[in-house]
Amino acid sequence: MTTTTSRHEGKAPRGRTRPGPALMIVAGAACTSSSGMFIKLSGVNAGTAAFLRCALALLVLAPLAYFEYRRLGGRSPRLLALDLAAGALLGLDYVCWVQSIHDLGASIATLLLNVQLVVFPLLTRVFTGVRLARRFWLTAPVLLAGVALASGALGHPEPGSDPVSGALFGMAAGVGFAGYLFFIRLGGDGPAPAEAGGAAGQGPALPVEDARKPNPHTVLPVCTATLAAAIASGVVGSLWTGVDLDPGPAAWGWLIPMALLGQVLAWLLINPALPRLAPDKGATLLLLQPILALLFGVGFLAERPTPTQYAGCALVVFAVWRSSRPDH
Description:
Strand content: under 5%
Number of strands: 0
Helix content: over 70%
Shape: globular
Radius of gyration: 20 Å
Structural class: mainly alpha
Order of helices and strands: HHHHHHHHHHHHHHH
Number of helices: 15
Oligomer: single chain
């Protein structure tokens, strides 16, 4: 009897296995990729879309975070401070990204967020002293050239777009997202910054042992960061474009699913899944986000990027893929 019991102690019950992390990341990438489409269909300005995305998500996240707090306890003041700092930068990212969507289209604006692939490692180098691999310096110029082509700042932009403004806001969004990833990494209790792109891109690969740190809290960090993002986007939006708290039934019909899919479900799928994967595999799977965003924009919004913009998209995807490959 003792022998039989010991054989089963180390095995997880078959009926309680969690969904595969790869499947969770694919589903999360699909959710985040649809956000730009919903925002453009809603027709609201940048401040309204960014603030309501977070505010609506909090209606779902807050009760879930409360129950997680009751079950696991709270996070340390240091981790909470980092969650808040990360969320503030995420709010700035959202406002700039929505404006980029209006200027360039949902597909190209989502792709431009990958500029964080350059900014995030530079922040890590400056503030933590981590040396950057030779691969980073080789892929960074390729990525920036791809961003310039994809936005239309170089070559031929899509008719009716504003390539210069869209590129600037898109890159500002990427910088904000890079700062978000940087603070998440400092927290050490969240997803590995190599793949925390959720919302929208990939960071440099980390050693596997760093990417698999235990993450007891799933909802609480997302809720805290979303609260800070709501405050930041509300302040920036109010001072810049204004925030319309009653955009009308048609807009609500697009904003509500955008918040539930792109903010709540996406992060709750991606955050716990990434630490369960090796960095190169997680980053490669998240390449689905800009690809799916491009398909959504072309298929549902009738966006028609020019051949030079498609070439830029290919360069960005190649640079992200190449940077996520493990060193041999």
